[in-house]
Amino acid sequence: MTTAPSTTTDEAPQPATPAPPKNSWAPLRPLILRLHFYAGVLVAPFLLVAAVTGLLYAASFQAEKIVYDHEMTVPAGERKLPVSEQVAAARKAHPEGTISAVRPSPDADATTRVLLSGVPGVDEGHTLAVFVDPYTAKVRGSLEQYGSTGALPLRTWIDEFHRDLHLGESGRLYSELAASWLWVISAGGLVLWFSRRRALRKVRGTSGRRRTLGLHGSIGVWAAAGFFFLSATGLTWSAYAGANIDELRTSLGQATPSVSASAGGDHAGHGSAAGQAGDAAHGVGLDKVLAAARSKGLGDPVEIVPPADAKSAYVVKQVQRSWPEKQDSVAIDPASGEVMDVVRFADYPVLAKLTRWGIDLHTGTLFGLANQIALMLLALCLILLIVWGYRMWWQRGRGTAFGRPIPRGAWQQVLPQILVPLLAGIAVLGYFLPLFGIPLAAFLAVDILLGEIAYRRGRRTYGAGTPAQ
C-alpha cells in the first residue's frame, strides 16, 4: 500500500469561490418567447386584417376628396348667403326626414352640409348629407354620411370594414382582439430583441432564418412605439375594454363634459321666426343662433344642432379635429337667442383631452396628410412583421409544414417573488381587457392539454420513466 504525498504548504487554504448569483429574470425569456410565438401565430391573422384595412382607411381621406370633389367644393365667391337660405334650398330639394344638424361652409371653397335623419333608404345611425353652394344656394348633390368626422360612402365603407368587417357588433370583437394583443406581442418582441447579444442583432451579411429574424426585430423595434399607441387608442372606443376605460375615467372625474341642452322653460319657440320644435327654423332661427355662437368665439368649422323638442336649446359645437383642435360648444335659448351654457375644450379634464387627441391621431385627422402617411407606414410595418414572423416559423421547421414548437415548462424556473406579482398583474389586465384575458386563458388551457397528450404518448412509447416535456 502506498501513501499519497502530502500537499500541505505554508499558505492558508483559500475559501471556495462562491457561485455567481442566479439571474432571477433569465427564466422569463423562454416564457416570453413562448407567449410571443403562440400569440403571434394565432393572433397575427386578426392583426393582418386590421393592418390592411387600417392602411386603406388612412388612404381614404385623400381618396374621398377626389371622388366627391363635386359635392364637397365650389368655386369661391364674394359673399355667402345666410345659412337659413341654404337650409331652405336643401329642404326644397329633399323634404324627406328631419334636420339633425347643419354644418355651414367652413372655407371659401367648401359647401354647406345639411344633415337629414330618418330618411328612407339611409342606414340607421347614418344621415343624408345635402351639399349646398353657400354663394348660390344651389344643391350640388346628396350623399350618405357617418360619424363626427363626416365620412362619406367610400370612407364609411372602409371605416366599418376596419372596425367590424361589416358584421355589426359581433364583428367588433376581431378589432378589439387585435388591439388587446398588439401591445403584448410588441412588448414581448422588444424584450426578446434587447436580450439577445449585439452580434445576433446584425442583419447585413446574414442569410436564412437569421436574416429574417434580423429584419423582423429591427423593424419591430423601430415601430414598437407606434404599435403601443395604436393599441392603447384603439381600445378606448372598443366594445368591452372601451366600456371599462369609460367607467374608469368617469370614476376619476375625467369624463368628457357636454353642454347642457335644456332650455329650462315653456317659453321656447316664441321668437319672431318660431317654427315647430325640432325644426331648423325653430325660435330665433339659425342665423341668429350662429351669430350668438360667433360672439362666444366659436370659429369655423361648426355644427348647429336644432332643438329636439320645445324644452331643448340649440347646440352649436366646433368640429375641427385637426391641430389645433377646436371643440368648444355652446347652448343657445331658441326663444331669446341668448347663450345659456358654454363648454371650452381648454377646460376638459386631462384624460378627456388625451382621449380626444389619441382618437384623432389614431384616425388620421389630427395632423392631416402627415398623420395619414405615418399611419400607412405603421400599417405596412405590421404587415411585413407578420409575413416575416410566419416565414421564421416555417424556417424553424426547416421546410416542414409547421415550425417546431417552443419548449414548455419555463415558468417552473421563475422565482415565486417574480411569478406571483406577474400573474396578479396579468389577472388585472385580463379583467379590464377581456379579449386579452379570455384568449390567454384559452392559450394556456390548450397548451396544457397538448402537453398532457405529448406526455402520455411518450409514456406509452418509451415507458413510465419518461419525463414530461
From TrEMBL:
Superkingdom of the source species: Bacteria
InterPro entries assigned: PepSY, PepSY-ass_TM
Keyword Cytoplasm tagged: no
Region described as Disordered: spans on this chain: 1-23
Composition-biased stretches (Polar residues): 1-11
Keywords, alphabetical: Membrane, Transmembrane, Transmembrane helix
Ranges of residues in domain PepSY: 80-142
Keyword Transmembrane: yes
Pfam families cross-referenced by the UniProt entry: PepSY, PepSY_TM
Ranges annotated as spanning the membrane: 37-59, 173-194, 215-240, 373-393, 414-432
Protein name: PepSY domain-containing protein
Native species: Streptomyces coeruleorubidus
